[in-house]
TrEMBL record, chain A:
Keywords: ATP-binding, Nucleotide-binding, Transport
Protein name stated in the entry: ABC transporter ATP-binding protein
The UniProt record lists the keyword Transmembrane helix: no
GO molecular function, one term: ATP hydrolysis activity
ABC transporter domain residues: 2-233
A UniProt-annotated Pfam family: ABC_tran
UniProtKB/TrEMBL annotation, chain B:
Xref: InterPro entries: DUF5687
Source domain of life: Bacteria
Membrane-spanning segments: 23-51, 63-82, 103-129, 141-162, 167-186, 206-226, 277-294, 300-323, 349-368, 374-398, 418-440, 446-467
Transmembrane keyword on record: yes
Tagged with keyword Membrane: yes
Identification of the protein by name: ABC transporter permease
Organism: Bizionia gelidisalsuginis
Keywords: Membrane, Transmembrane, Transmembrane helix
Length: 242, 490
């Protein structure tokens, strides 16, 4: 579904991303982990053609992302609050996205009804603009909006951050459900190792822009990841001491 | 502590994105400041002589006093819409060990050095100097000056209080409207007793204590107001507005661009900055009153063509100029959602067309000045739709300055969405129509000029698909740069 080949991104000769090859098959739930500055958001931004690659390319369902806009109809995403339109209410925002994705009002309503639990009564019928909602509630609205219109590829950057524990658990169920039943390819980044290992079939670890681990999730994965990242702490301490 | 706060202030100014923009913009900015400052100085210096000449029978001082009231009202209105109150910047200071009073004094002091308080001085100080040179008594003139400054200061604080309270604003607005009408029809001239009061103060200089006391009282009131509400959810907070929804489903007939049109209307309804710009664009409708009423311009049809362009082009020039910056806060969404770039641009075009048509309907009263004039406005409208709208969109491709939607524009904020390229692209918008009108007018006649103008517009409409393709290419080319620039916070 998504093919990444020889992809690099440089800013003034500093390479922030350098991925030789990743191929994500259709229907996979794919997790991206790494420390700050590892290149997770850069990768997602490249995938959504928000920044231009320095070399290489990403192919989304056969479409070269940086050359054609044809990937847009089947791809949806929520990266950060700049994906929300602050002066709309949540409903207006959902209907707007619905309009863009050729969904009728009724379609959107049906979809939203499935997420009543997830919203926990804090999103719909609030008589508030999105800009006046709390960070967590903004995130809920953004994530659900990314599910409108039966996208085949869903990209979520740090979906668990800012969410309360109950909502985190519900979000995990939603993601698992999507990946299992509908064959949707989901890309998620997170700092929370246990959440990604919980929902993703495959986990790639980025460090300073490069892929250093590509794991198929198994019961041992969480341990391995924890060992890896605490190992980094050790390395950093060692270098600090020098 | 105050010293440190001042240094923060300086850093905020010198490190702001628009100030960093390069030498050209700084020079332009300096010119703008010099220009406005110079104009104010010139006005202040010559006011005395102008008044003496035009109204020789009354003392210029008296004339000024009788208009002073309107000046203060105007000042207040201007502030209400334009002046940015620096309340939010206080947040980081709330949790560090600085005395609350220090912060509040600083805050109030900061509002006092605003552009709105300083500009009047540029007029009034030269005026008083001229008065003194002309041999007016020193003490009353100085008292008058101090009184003026004190009242300006008072307005500053009144505005602060009023900004947190809409009711006060509407009361003031109603009062102004009522007195304005009464004044206009000479039923009751509020300016007379007010003028009398200022004259009286001038005659009895010790009365200057009245405005001073008012200033001190208002300062204290504001101080206590802020101190009482010095909490995140009180005076320091932004206002959270109740949602107002309007049914816009009638726009669905516009097909693919309908969702964007609906959004743009909500954008204007619900955000401070677009509302401000909208209001400015409304003022353009009255542009004709300046040009059509004066015989000198009647002789210069090219200038009339220029004015006619502005009457229907207000929205295009003010709002359109900031496309796509209006969507800067969520530009990434628009760029990754299922939207072809072209549809997005088309929606902006439709919006401008609707605005031009709307202004054209509103401009029908200009028939009063004759069908010639109205024909000119009509030709101008067609030109605006057919060519200026595209020029505006084209210019927008180079416009990469993010706009904070729900924040009032600061004085001189035009520099935010303004750069030399923008200016260059802006020039043809009014030079072209003058030229296109003038050549056939000189060679053939007035009507030929009108037809030429309208024809160019029609051509633009006919070749729309082609032009859109070109514009889209320019936007596509700058896409990454625009996204990067818009994601920088100001």
């Amino acid at each position: 579904m998504i093919k990444t080949v020889n992809l690099t991104k440089k800013y003034n000769d500093v390479t922030v991303l350098n991925i030789e090859e990743i191929e994500i098959p259709k229907g996979q739930s794919f997790g991206l982990v790494g420390n700050n500055g590892a290149g997770k958001t850069t990768y997602f931004s490249l995938l959504l053609d928000l920044i231009a690659p320095s070399s290489g390319y990403i192919e989304n369902n056969g479409v070269l992302v940086h050359e054609s806009e044809d990937w847009k109809p089947f791809t949806s995403s929520f990266i950060d609050e700049s994906f929300l339109i602050g002066y709309l209410t949540a409903e207006e925002y959902f209907y707007f996205i619905g309009d863009l994705r050729h969904q009728t009002k009724a379609d959107v309503d049906t979809l939203l009804a499935q997420f009543a639990d997830f919203f926990n009564g804090e999103i719909l019928k609030q008589k508030k603009y999105l800009r006046d909602l709390s960070k967590g509630n903004q995130k809920k609205a953004g994530i659900v909006a990314a599910l409108i219109g039966n996208p085949e590829v869903i990209v979520l950057d740090e979906p668990f951050a800012n969410l309360d524990p109950t909502t985190q658990i519900r979000l995990k169920q939603i993601i698992k459900e999507l990946a299992r039943s509908k064959g949707v390819t989901i890309l998620i980044s997170s700092h929370d190792l246990s959440h990604v290992t919980d929902v993703c079939e495959r986990i790639v670890v980025l460090e300073k822009g490069a892929v250093i681990k590509d794991l198929k999730t198994s019961p041992a994965t969480l341990k391995e990841l924890e060992a890896h990242f605490s190992g980094l702490v050790g390395v950093e301490k060692a270098t600090d001491l020098q | 502590m105050i010293k440190r706060l001042l240094s923060f202030e300086w850093k905020q100014f010198s490190r702001s994105s628009y100030f960093k923009k390069g030498i050209a913009i700084k020079i332009l900015l300096a010119f703008a400041v010099l220009y406005f400052g110079g104009m104010a100085l010139l006005l202040g210096g010559s006011l005395f002589f102008i008044l003496k000449k035009t109204i020789p029978e009354t003392d210029p001082m008296t004339t000024v006093n009788s208009f002073l009231f309107f000046w203060f009202i105007f000042d207040f209105m201007l502030r209400y819409f334009m002046q940015q109150l620096p309340v939010m910047n206080v947040k980081p200071l709330m949790i560090i060990p600085v005395k609350r009073n220090t912060v509040i004094y600083y805050l109030l002091g900061k509002t006092s050095v605003s552009f709105f308080n300083i500009l009047p001085l540029f007029i009034v100080v030269p005026f008083t100097i001229v008065l003194l040179v002309q041999g007016y008594p020193v003490i009353p003139v100085l008292a008058w000056l101090i009184g003026f400054v004190a009242i300006t200061g008072s307005i500053n604080f009144i505005n602060f209080l009023v900004n947190k309270n809409n009711v006060v604003f509407y009361v003031v607005l109603a009062l102004v409207a009522t007195f304005g009408v009464l004044e206009y029809y000479s039923i009751f001239k509020i300016s007379e007793p007010m003028g009398y009061a200022f004259n009286y103060m001038y005659a009895h200089p010790y009365l200057v204590v009245v405005p001073i006391v008012a200033l001190v009282a208002l300062f204290n009131a504001t101080f206590h107001f802020i101190k009482k509400g010095f909490y995140l959810d009180d005076a320091i907070s932004k206002k959270v507005k109740e949602v107002s929804t309007t049914d816009l489903s009638w726009l669905n007939r516009f097909g693919a661009v309908a969702p964007f049109l609906k959004n743009d209307i909500k954008l204007i309804q619900r955000n401070v900055r677009p509302r401000q710009v909208m209001m400015m664009s409304f003022m353009f409708l009255f542009y004709g009153l300046v040009f059509y009423t004066q015989d000198t311009y009647r002789e210069m049809p090219a200038l009339l063509a220029f004015a006619s362009m502005f009457i229907t082009g207000g929205f295009l020039m003010t709002f359109g100029q900031y496309v796509p910056s209006w969507d800067s806060e969520y530009y990434k969404l628009l760029m990754s959602q299922n939207i072809p770039y072209k549809t997005y641009l088309e929606s902006k075009w439709y919006l401008m067309v609707v605005a031009v048509l709307f202004s054209f309907i509103l401009s029908t009263p200009y028939i009063y000045f004759g069908w010639d004039i109205f024909g000119m406005i009509a030709a101008g409208a067609v030109f605006n739709i057919g060519l200026n709208s595209f020029l505006t969109l084209f210019g927008g491709a180079l416009n990469r300055v993010p706009i904070e939607l729900n924040v009032k524009a600061k004085a001189f904020s035009n520099t935010n969405g303004f750069n030399p390229t923008q200016l260059l692209i802006g020039l043809p918008k009014f030079l072209l129509p003058m030229l296109i009108f003038y050549v056939p007018y000189k060679l053939i006649n007035f009507n030929a000029g009108l037809i030429a103008l309208a024809l160019v517009g029609v051509l633009g409409i006919v070749f729309r698909p082609y032009i859109f393709n070109k514009i889209e290419q320019v936007y596509q080319k700058g896409k990454y740069k625009t996204i990067a620039a818009f994601s920088e916070k100001q």
